[in-house]
Amino acid sequence: MERSSFIFYQSFLDAVERLPKKDRGDALYAICKYGISGEMAENISAVADAIFTMAKPNIDANNQRFANGKNGGRPRKDKTESKPNHNQTKTKVKPNKDVDIDVNVDKDYNEYRDNKLSLSVACATDKERDRFFEIFFFSNFVNPAAEVERFVSNYEASGWIRSNGQLAKNREALAKAWAEEPKNREAKRRFTGEFLSKWEILYGQTKKEGKLDAGVLLRGIYGASFEENGNMLRLAVTPGLARVLKGSWDVYFVRFFDKYYPGKQIKWWAVK
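^ thats the sequence. predicted structure below, dont judge the formating
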């Protein structure tokens, strides 16, 4: 059934905004195409199709109500003109009875609520994505940001259903298990184990103290290597981390490097 408009809920937008940018267009197209024409979109990404699948029951319900409304309401009763009765007594005016209309407010609200919950539960939150990034960074993936997208896209498409058919209640544990799968271990080759373990100590201290943005320590470093016979540690960092290191070196970072890299020169350069 083709329509000129349809109801697009806030929950649809909330869910689409949580998708990677490359999948948002597919999800919006699938929802709008089905809402207007009733036709299913083809050749869309798996994660976009998952969002559409959860939005579809709500669209179907609204389209059914629209179709019912086109059939009209109850026929009106014929009005008959009555003659005035001068002897009639005054009576109290009774309140109008509730009009019987084809709208169930509780049912509509519950449908909207359930639909919103199902969409939001399927999508990883920003906080969860940050935690996944931590896990994949310290699991030594070359590109932890890309691994987050690969991991999230895989499980959002399945509704966070594990391979055993059970719903994953602990997504953090699921990410750790993902990082240890043999097929994923081949991608790990970024830092030496020694450097990564020490950098994790620095990150943990920074996160606990809250004096600096700890996230920049993960997202702002590209590589680390020893040069000049092992006497110099060179760090490849983003301009943002370079500014943090320079601005807080004497009051913060020097303690860490003096403790864990005594007698070593520490140099960094910003990679744009």
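The first strand starts at residue 221 and ends at 227.
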